[in-house]
């Protein structure tokens, strides 16, 4: 059974940093692209970033480019999102999601339960 | 960042059929597969349709998808109160090199 469990969310002041983690199980982690998707309170889904199975290719939404860094440790079956220079508008539930295939982000077959990040002073 | 365009809300009676549209561009829907997601209140999204018209195992055949040009459509037949949720379309944009989601459509089963 595929399981994705996010952690690392919390309350952080504007300008601060936070690292989210997503522990994966139930599949060959290194064979699949992974994504982070966020949802601000009462708003729709926004794709944040994606990384291919090998970790060699990363992609970002314009809204986070230069501030967020996605990475993965295939030996630990874990996905990360390093978030720097956080802003109030980054407040959201952050979901990690599993793609279909090592290089495709187009379809997100499995989602974690999400972790809440609140940026506020 | 641009998004795909969906109607904010749709409604229909139990047992009826509803369609939800999703409009994009040649760099998004026009050249990539479309996926659809259902988000029940207070839960994470789940994949309903992938590659325009395929259903993952466990998804009812009451849900269907189609694509034509730069638009896609989700169809739901035999509406049930349990179908009340937000529905999102999504696809890769080859120019932006990013996944785009529609703004979401809230389905109300009257």
Quick structural overview:
The complex is a heterodimer of chains A (121) and B (110). By secondary structure, chain A is mainly β.
- Biggest β-sheet of chain B: count, sense, barrel? 6 strands, mixed
* Helix share, percent of chain B: under 10%
Greatest chain-chain contact: A-B, 25 and 28 residues
End-to-end separation of chain B in angstroms reads: 34 Å
Inertia-based shape of chain A: globular
Structural class of chain A: mainly beta
Low-confidence stretches of chain A: none
Largest sheet properties of chain A: 7 strands, mixed
Oligomeric organization of the protein chains: heterodimer
Task: Please tell me about this protein's structure.
The complex is a heterodimer of chains A (121) and B (110). In chain A, strands 2, 4, 5, 6, 9, 10 and 11 form a 7-stranded mixed β-sheet that branches. Helix content of chain A is 0%, strand content 48%. Chain A has 121 residues and is mainly β. Chain B has no helices and 9 strands. The model of chain B has no long low-confidence stretch (mean pLDDT 95). Chain B has strands spanning 9-12, 18-23, 34-39, 46-49, 63-68, 71-76, 85-93, 98-101, 105-109. Classes of the chains: A mainly beta (121), B mainly beta (110). The interface between A and B is medium-sized, with 25 and 28 residues.
Provide keyphrases for this structure:
heterodimer; A: mainly beta; 4-stranded antiparallel sheet; B: 110 residues; mainly beta; 6-stranded mixed sheet; 3-stranded antiparallel sheet; 9 strands
